[in-house]
User: Which sequence fits this backbone?
């Protein structure tokens, strides 16, 4: 397992826009405004399209998670660099502190999301978990009572994770996981594009189509009980068999609530 360290975003990179969420005691208060996910994704694409620096983009993705993922009060982006885990973005100081604690513990849903294929979901940290050492510190030192981690792929390598945290136990559900999968797919495309120097206009088009693909993948995973790779393979095979673009297959799956376009072979 890579070495862990307390190399996180500095104070200048932690956004202040969530002051309504984190109070002086470290607790949270729910955001009373419901935000449409399409509006949030369009705003994220515009931030990237207009050439914002990576730190601003990472922070925007984390804040977006608190707006569109049900139950999410705090979020962070953790990546693996030179065999060390580094927080590159956080919605607030609570999220940054959670990453510190996980690095100190040496394991947890976020680190495991980077190392493992499947999403890591622990809706109730007050009950026995796979990470008792981390859970004990989170309960003692933060308001967090639930956590989820979703891996990010950069150059087809497991090098990052989108980490979501809730101050209320048992609020993360299948809808929460589905939206998080879409956002993680979006983040993966953005990070890959920045790493490869892709131009902004091409990136924006890719992000908007990838959002649909990510949503379709999440829907197939939840409805059919399959892994992320199996769901993507279903979309890819269907695209090849019907000779239509992958994004179009994804659009049909979303419209038909999990049903692939006709003409595909049964099975995975």
Assistant:
């Amino acid at each position: 397992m890579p070495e862990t360290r307390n190399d996180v975003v500095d104070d200048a990179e932690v956004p202040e826009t969530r002051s309504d969420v984190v109070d002086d005691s470290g607790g949270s208060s729910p955001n009373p405004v419901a935000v449409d996910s399409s509006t949030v994704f369009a705003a994220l694409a515009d931030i990237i399209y207009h050439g914002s620096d990576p730190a601003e983009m990472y922070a925007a993705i984390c804040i977006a998670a608190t707006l569109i993922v049900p139950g999410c009060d705090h979020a962070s982006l953790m990546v693996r660099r030179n065999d060390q885990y580094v927080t590159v973005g956080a919605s607030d100081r609570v999220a940054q502190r959670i990453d510190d604690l996980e690095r100190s513990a040496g394991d947890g849903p976020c680190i495991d999301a980077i190392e493992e294929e499947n999403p890591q979901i622990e809706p109730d940290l007050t009950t026995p978990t796979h990470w008792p050492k981390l859970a004990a510190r989170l309960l003692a030192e933060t308001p967090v009572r639930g956590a989820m981690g979703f891996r990010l792929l950069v150059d087809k390598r497991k090098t990052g994770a989108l980490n979501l945290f809730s101050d209320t136990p048992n609020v993360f559900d299948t809808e929460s996981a589905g939206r998080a999968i879409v956002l993680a797919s979006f983040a993966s495309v953005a990070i890959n594009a920045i790493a490869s120097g892709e131009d902004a206009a091409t990136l924006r088009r890719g992000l908007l189509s990838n959002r649909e693909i990510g949503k379709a993948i999440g829907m197939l995973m939840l409805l059919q009980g399959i892994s992320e790779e199996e769901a993507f393979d279903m979309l890819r095979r269907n695209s090849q068999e019907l000779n239509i673009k992958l994004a179009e297959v994804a659009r049909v799956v979303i419209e038909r609530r999990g049903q692939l376009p006709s003409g595909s072979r049964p099975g995975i």
Q: What stands out?
A: Strands lie at 3-7, 74-81, 84-90, 120-122, 146-154, 157-166. Residues 120 and 144 are 16 Å apart (CA to CA). The first helix runs from residue 37 to 49. The chain has one domain: 3-200.
